[in-house]
Write a structure and sequence with these properties.
Elements (H helix, E strand, L loop, with lengths): L1 E5 L3 H12 L3 E5 L3 H8 L10 H7 L4 E4 L2 H5 L4 E4 L14 H13 L4 E5 L7 H12 L6 E5 L9 H6 L4 E4 L3 H11 L6 E4 L1 H32 L3 H9 L20 H14 L5 H13 L2 H7 L9 E5 L15 H10 L3 E5 L4 H7 L5 E2 L3 H5 L4 E4 L4 H4 L3 H7 L4 E4 L15 E3 L11 H4 L4
Parallel strand pairs: 1-2, 1-4, 2-3, 4-5, 5-6, 7-8, 9-10, 9-12, 10-11, 12-13, 13-14
Helix pairs in contact: 1-3, 5-6, 9-11, 9-12, 11-12
The structure holds nicotinamide-adenine-dinucleotide.
């Protein structure tokens, strides 16, 4: 099949490369000329495991262009994977989706299916169908499928090649047929439904996962009040098949390009229809507060952070990606700087994107150990492998006063007993090795 993917971000590029791996001829189109140039030269604008090798292996079936006419003229399927960011009021901004629709109407030469992979508000595909039908030439059949994406950044390639399910919403048998043909080489289960249900499946899934994270984080905070251990609590809960163990890891909350915007978009959509999604609202509120819980913990030791050196390990919203969208680091680091702390940060992938989002004075380090050098507080914001591999002796050796606040529960509290390191995490009992007199001051 000849497939064009519009948008070469995390979703579009991974989709395009995996479709080529499945044997299709794929054109990846992006309005960003620089991105296309980079891709044409064999380089990848995002950090995602396996992408480089797959791109190399499938080079003969992958074509990159910034020219809409070249991209849309001869495709059998056009997959829309452009961004759908949030508007200031929390609603979803569809301008990029409609810009692609306009180009398709203008340049597509024959019958095709437009598969909307971008996360779009319920009802968008129906409106898009009317929009396109009102503008297309009478001899061009353009059919619409809703084909939401569920990949996770960091494991995006595997999530696509071995998806738990593919959702296809459509309203004509031929559209389902085309989509079945496109996904046949993947051999994954396909759930077929109408357009609105497919769109709803995406939002309902993401909102449920966000809710699960905020729920365990709120339970974690309560565990601290009662001296319970949230890791044990989550394990005990997760073994119940009705609950399941995934997304029950307590920490400083979710970020990234999906959960924050998709929770707000669904809340907005419901509100627009005169309904209030109380559970979703709670998930959003808990998550916002949770992002800065590490600062509250730091203040339990230091009344003021002015003049303190703080090591921040991890800037990306999760390991395996360079994405910092809605990452806790975007809230925590500016707050540290506002309080007069000096920040020494380390991240193996997200430094550039972080600097673009927060153009302030941060000392970036090449290794976690360098970031720890001379620091009085260490905040762990992303559980990169190199952070999980740190031992108590590393903190003792490098830090001025080894106070570690692990916002991702990626180290084991037991390891810190009798080591001289004071270790705090989320919802687990702290290990206090230094007394106030020895290590900390309350100014
Ligand atoms: N990132 C994820 O983990 C993820 C997972 C599931 C679903 N989604 C959804 O997928 C969509 C894309 O997300 P993303 O993270 O890949 O976004 P992204 O911001 O990384 O990439 C979007 C790309 O679209 C390009 N673009 C914008 N207008 C264009 C146009 N008119 N023609 C061609 N290209 C254009 C941009 O230049 C950019 O490269 C969003 O709706 C998102 O909610 C994302």
């Amino acid at each position: 099949m000849r497939i064009t993917v519009a948008g070469t971000g995390y979703v579009g590029l991974v989709t395009g490369v995996c479709l080529a791996q499945a044997g299709h001829d794929v054109t990846c189109m992006d309005a960003d000329v620089e991105k296309i140039r980079l891709l044409q030269s064999g380089r990848i604008p995002i950090y995602e495991t396996q992408m480089e090798e797959l791109l190399r292996e499938n080079a003969a079936r992958l074509f990159f262009t910034a020219d809409a006419q070249t991209a849309y003229a001869d495709a059998d399927v056009i997959v829309i994977g452009v961004g759908t960011p949030e508007n200031p009021d929390g609603s979803c901004d569809l301008q990029y989706v409609y810009a692609v629709a306009d180009s398709i109407v203008r340049y597509a030469r024959h019958e095709l299916v437009v598969a909307v992979k971008s996360t779009v508000p319920i009802g968008t595909c129906r409106r898009l169908r009317s929009y396109i039908n009102a503008r297309r030439d009478a001899d061009k059949q353009i059919r619409i499928a809703s084909n939401p994406e569920f990949l996770s950044q960091g494991t995006a390639v595997q999530d696509t090649l071995h998806a738990a399910r593919v959702i296809v919403g459509a309203e004509e048998p031929q559209t389902f047929e085309t989509m079945r043909e496109m996904y046949a080489p993947f051999g994954v289960p396909i759930v077929e439904t109408d357009l609105c249900s497919a769109e709803m499946i995406k939002y309902a899934s993401n909102n449920f996962l966000a809710l699960k994270i905020s729920y365990i984080n709120e339970i974690a905070n309560l565990c601290e009040t009662f001296g319970a251990d949230v890791a044990d609590v989550a394990k005990g809960m997760g073994l119940d098949p009705r609950i399941g163990e995934s997304f029950l890891r307590a920490g400083i909350g979710y970020g990234g390009s999906c959960f924050p915007k998709d929770t707000k978009a669904l809340y907005w959509l419901a509100e627009h229809e005169g309904r209030e999604l109380k559970t979703v609202r709670a998930a959003i509120e808990v998550n916002e507060a949770q992002k800065t819980v590490v600062l509250k913990k730091a203040h339990a030791y230091y009344r003021s952070l002015r003049g303190r050196t703080v090591a921040v390990l991890g800037l990306a919203f999760k390991p395996g990606t360079d994405d910092v969208r809605d990452a806790p680091s975007l809230k925590v680091i500016p707050q540290l700087l506002d309080e007069g702390a000096a920040v020494q940060a380390w991240d193996p992938a997200a430094r550039q994107r972080f600097t673009a989002a927060v153009p302030r004075t941060v000392r970036f380090c090449d290794t976690p150990e360098q970031a720890l050098d001379g620091a009085e507080i260490c905040l762990i914001l992303t559980e990169w492998d190199a952070v999980c591999a740190l031992r108590p002796a590393d903190f003792v050796r490098h830090m001025k006063t080894p106070l570690v606040i692990d916002g991702r529960n990626c180290l084991r509290p037991e390891a810190f007993r009798d080591t001289g390191v004071t270790y705090e995490s989320i919802g687990r009992r702290p290990v206090r090795n230094l007394t106030e007199k020895e290590g900390f001051d309350h100014e």
